[in-house]
């Protein structure tokens, strides 16, 4: 019996030790799993970023980027090599790969992925909406009268005038000022960031509680909701005292043979003047106001009335003064004005309904008008464009594809300024946008000094950063074109200046290259809304010529090299205005 009790006691002691060992092992195993999980998350987040040792070496950027200055004297070295490449350029010829090196530190892959990782780690819009709903509202003084909360959807807008977006600074006052400057009576805000204008509210009013989102730039101020529009009246101004921006005279045009095809609306106006006709068409939310003798018409540009073939101005003068005595069989002429009303036929945009299997680049040198062309493509096709980078300013102003991953396949094309072989070969085709290097260099320098819509001062042009900038960036302008011609698989060359002078034909060729089905009405709508929100006001230039004799010698040599390369690749050469005179 004693032996049995001893064995039992020894067994229990061993069991206690065994259970203790199991407990310790369980705790250690849990700790190891937690450490491995944390390591897996870190590894996954950094998986797309190559090790620093594998990154290509970069030359010293210009001092304008905040880096140590580069030597500019004589503008030689790399530029001489590029000129030689252009003179003897043959597609597929063995050229020096080093000439395609990227020049901007912001293009560094590690920095780009860190920026994207930081951005996507922020709260989502859904989370923000929940926070905003739970935040007690405070009374914020409003500029206009609050009309209430109204239904709104993309197929039937409550306000059918112009549309603007600011995902960062939108306020009710900003929206009202925008609508007032364009001659509208009502301003509506939706999703906390979208501003709609109009002269007529075409939807039903709902409970004010359904407009439960604050403005992005003004907490406590109602800015609509999901499918809900907070509507304000703008300041009342007596007719005849309104001052509109962007009203411009388009010219004298012949009445189309089938006048009904233009969808013109006849407006009866006593004591008709151009000002009263423009106001009447703005009130009816039409982008065009047309005068013919004592008649006022409102409407849109159509395939039968494109406004591409103006008549002599004398025709309108004679027609308007003698129309009563003219036979009805003779054609008449309109004096046409562009009102500030936004053509609403092409304002709706969305992501591609199905993921695209082909990746199309919209490539250009910085300052060549990439943002403007993206705006035109989105208007013409109705689909968002993407970006290889992330620019918060562009995203805040309505370029929603800016936030989307550039290889997602949800955007119709992707903006890039890259020109290395590896980056070029990632794309199946490219729209290569080229602009006069003199204008491109000035536009990019303006952006670096004063942002997307600002201008550099005379003091900026006189600093040593400007010659350093030209010394580095001028050769990049040339190498960018040469590298895409060499490594690009399918290339459509588009000249910025041709888009300005013949927008519809060039935009038609771009949409055809993108395999997008686009109606003629949509192209004309894009032409009507071509300015967008990223056009610098006026054409302010420095009071002196910023380009020295040495700078012009460098740039002119690069122009010749690129022109020859384009011709050797069976493309049209550079426009004549580029070439040295």
Furnish the topology, listing elements before pairings.
Elements: H1 2-45, H2 78-87, H3 109-120, H4 125-134, E1 145-151, E2 163-165, H5 172-181, E3 186-190, E4 194-198, E5 205-206, E6 214-215, E7 218-222, E8 228-233, E9 248-254, E10 265-267, H6 274-283, E11 288-292, E12 295-299, H7 313-322, E13 333-338, E14 360-364, H8 370-381, E15 386-387, H9 392-396, E16 414-416, H10 421-424, E17 429-434, H11 437-450, H12 458-462, H13 465-487, E18 491-495, H14 496-501, H15 503-513, H16 520-528, H17 549-568
Parallel strand pairs: 14-16, 14-17, 15-16, 17-18
Antiparallel strand pairs: 1-5, 1-8, 2-4, 3-4, 3-8, 6-7, 9-13, 10-12, 11-12, 11-13
List keywords for this structure.
single chain; 581 residues; alpha+beta; Rossmann fold; six-stranded antiparallel sheet; five-stranded antiparallel sheet; 17 helices; 37% helix; Sialate-O-sulfotransferase; WSC domain containing 1; repeat
Number of helices: 17
Q: Indicate the proportion of strand residues.
A: 5-15%
The level of helicity is 25-40%
What is the terminal-to-terminal distance? 119 Å
Q: Care to count the β-strands?
A: 18
Low-confidence stretches: 37-74, 93-138
Shape: globular
User: CATH superfamily of the domain at 360-535 and 545-578, please?
Assistant: P-loop containing nucleotide triphosphate hydrolases
- What would CATH call the architecture of the domain at 360-535 and 545-578? 3-Layer(aba) Sandwich
Regarding CATH, which class of the domain at 360-535 and 545-578? Alpha Beta
Assign the structural class, choosing from mainly alpha, mainly beta, alpha/beta, alpha+beta, or little secondary structure: alpha+beta
Major β-sheet profile: 6 strands, antiparallel
CATH fold node name of the domain at 360-535 and 545-578: Rossmann fold
Strand order of the largest sheet: 2-4-3-8-1-5
């Amino acid at each position: 019996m004693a032996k049995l009790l001893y064995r039992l006691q020894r067994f229990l002691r061993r069991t206690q030790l065994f259970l203790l060992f199991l407990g310790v092992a369980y705790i250690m195993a849990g700790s190891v799993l937690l450490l491995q999980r944390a390591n897996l998350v870190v590894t996954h987040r950094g998986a797309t970023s190559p090790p620093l040792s594998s990154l290509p070496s970069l030359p010293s950027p210009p001092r304008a980027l905040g880096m140590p200055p580069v030597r500019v004297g004589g503008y030689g070295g790399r530029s001489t090599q590029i000129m030689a490449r252009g003179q003897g350029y043959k597609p597929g010829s063995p050229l020096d790969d080093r000439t395609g090196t990227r020049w901007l530190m912001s293009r560094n892959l590690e920095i780009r992925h860190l920026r994207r990782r930081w951005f996507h780690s922020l709260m989502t819009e859904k989370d923000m909406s929940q926070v905003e709903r739970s935040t007690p509202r405070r009374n914020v003084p409003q500029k206009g009268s609050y009309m209430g909360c109204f239904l709104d959807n993309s197929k039937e807008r409550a306000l059918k005038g112009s549309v603007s977006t600011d995902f960062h600074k939108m306020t009710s006052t900003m929206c009202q000022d925008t609508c007032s400057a364009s001659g509208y009576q009502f301003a509506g805000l939706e999703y906390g960031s979208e501003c709609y204008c109009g002269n007529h509210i075409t939807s039903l009013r709902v409970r004010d509680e359904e407009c439960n989102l604050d403005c992005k730039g003004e907490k406590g101020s109602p800015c609509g909701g999901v499918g809900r529009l907070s509507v304000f009246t703008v300041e009342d101004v007596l007719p005849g005292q309104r001052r509109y921006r962007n009203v411009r005279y388009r010219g004298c045009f012949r009445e189309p043979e089938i006048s009904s095809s233009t969808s013109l609306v006849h407006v009866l106006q006593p004591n008709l003047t151009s000002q009263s006709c423009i106001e009447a068409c703005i009130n009816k939310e039409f982008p065009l106001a047309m005068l013919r003798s004592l008649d006022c018409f409102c409407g849109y540009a159509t395939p039968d009335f494109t406004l591409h073939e103006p008549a002599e101005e004398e025709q309108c003068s004679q027609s308007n003064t003698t129309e009563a005595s003219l036979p009805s069989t003779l054609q008449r002429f309109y004096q046409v004005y562009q009102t500030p009303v936004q053509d609403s036929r092409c304002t709706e945009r969305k992501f591609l309904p199905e993921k695209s299997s082909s990746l199309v680049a919209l490539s250009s040198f910085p300052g060549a008008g990439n943002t403007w062309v993206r705006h035109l493509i989105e208007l013409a096709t109705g689909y968002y464009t993407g970006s290889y980078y992330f620019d918060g300013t562009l995203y805040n102003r309505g370029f929603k594809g800016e936030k989307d991953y550039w290889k997602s396949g949800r955007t119709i094309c992707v903006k890039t300024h890259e020109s290395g072989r590896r980056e070029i070969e990632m794309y199946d085709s490219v729209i290569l946008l080229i602009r006069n290097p003199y204008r491109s260099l000035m536009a990019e320098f303006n952006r670096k000094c004063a942002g997307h819509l600002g201008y550099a001062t005379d003091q900026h042009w006189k600093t040593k950063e400007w010659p350093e900038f030209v010394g580095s960036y001028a050769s990049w302008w040339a190498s960018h074109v040469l590298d895409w011609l060499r490594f690009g698989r399918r290339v459509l060359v588009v000249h910025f200046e041709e888009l300005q002078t013949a927008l519809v034909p060039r935009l038609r060729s771009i949409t055809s290259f993108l395999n997008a089905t686009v109606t003629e009405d949509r192209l004309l709508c894009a032409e009507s809304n071509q300015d967008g929100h990223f056009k610098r006001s006026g054409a302010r230039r420095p009071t002196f010529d910023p380009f020295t004799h040495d700078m012009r010698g460098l740039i002119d040599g690069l122009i010749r090299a690129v022109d020859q390369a384009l011709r050797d690749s069976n493309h049209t050469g550079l426009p004549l205005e580029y070439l040295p005179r």
